[in-house]
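Raw record, unedited: GTPase Obg
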Amino acid sequence: MSMFLDTAKIQVKAGNGGDGMVAFRREKYVPNGGPWGGDGGRGGNVVFVVDEGLRTLMDFRYNRHFKAQSGEKGMTKGMHGRGAEDLIVRVPQGTTVRDAETGKVLTDLVENGQEFIVARGGRGGRGNIRFATPKNPAPEISENGEPGQERELLLELKVLADVGLVGFPSVGKSTLLSVITAAKPKIGAYHFTTIVPNLGMVRTHSGESFAVADLPGLIEGASQGVGLGTQFLRHIERTRVILHVIDMSASEGRDPYEDYLAINKELESYNLRLMERPQIIVANKMDMPDSAENLKVFKEKLAANYDEFAELPQIFPISSLTKQGLATLLDATAELLDKTPEFLLYDESEMEEEAYYGFDEEAPAFEISRDDDATWVLSGDKLEKLFNMTNFDRDEAVMKFARQLRGMGVDEALRTRGAKDGDLVRIGKFEFEFVD
């Protein structure tokens, strides 16, 4: 079984803020001591950090839930609770993080040591020392900590390589990689010997270097889920140059030109932008008897089917076995890389805007619906946050919450919808009676 994993779905939960405390100063010789309860500590964030030592998402196969610690509760003498440590989750370079609910890309992590907060911890609740006023110098009110952010994430690994080797199975991609780099991919005389992407570093005679990825062989229909190719087409997206390897000996009984068209069709079907990347055609197995004649026919067909004003892709005849033509191919690849810019993987429509953790002024503060049992149901981010941060063990806090609801217009909206005295109203799992 392969130990390479390039997709994962996980759940993250940031820490809740610590609850504020209700306390009073009671010390000898300090009359009318007043409120003395401190604020709760901040909950821990969940932070992704890029670790260049990781190569797959295998760590997320069995560990799919990540929960940061909550902040400590506030203490007496006005002391704040301790804030929780952030939960650090290490991911490999090239990891794309999406929100599972919206499908939007949150971040693309490519630099070693790069950090991104995927879930923010809640702030600590205020202690009663914060609520003292001239009218109420001894309040028995405190807040619960703000809940930490919770979300489901999709992780997708796209290997970091400058050059991608594509082509049908058994055209010699793995052999080529093993000859031009120190990588040692599994090589066999059967289809789909390569079942995971292999990476290697190339150094040319002129001293330039670049990373090459050997990707599992594509077949016709790969972009629709046929064969192994569909699982690994994503890894081509980061490459800047594509080396299209073709078996010019036609040892499998296929036409080399038809192979060329079929693979390009799969690349285009998967992602139109893959065809923006410059290609170099690698005519492999030129040490075989019929290869020279097949290459001549291939060039004629290629020229005949290209627009007269279009620039034909470069063709390099090589033999991985005899190492014929490799130096010229690598120099040309390095030269093409120098003048090829990075390709943006995502446009603005795919990226989630920078997270805003306040309230959207245009969004309604609350919504009212009717449940099957005739209970009125209140919902909405602002209302639910106020509810979660209310300490219902304290009468003053409950009265404060009731005033907040009235100030938001909840009472009037319920009357308008037809709520009567004694009707049940539900917020989450909490129920209370409507009093007109």
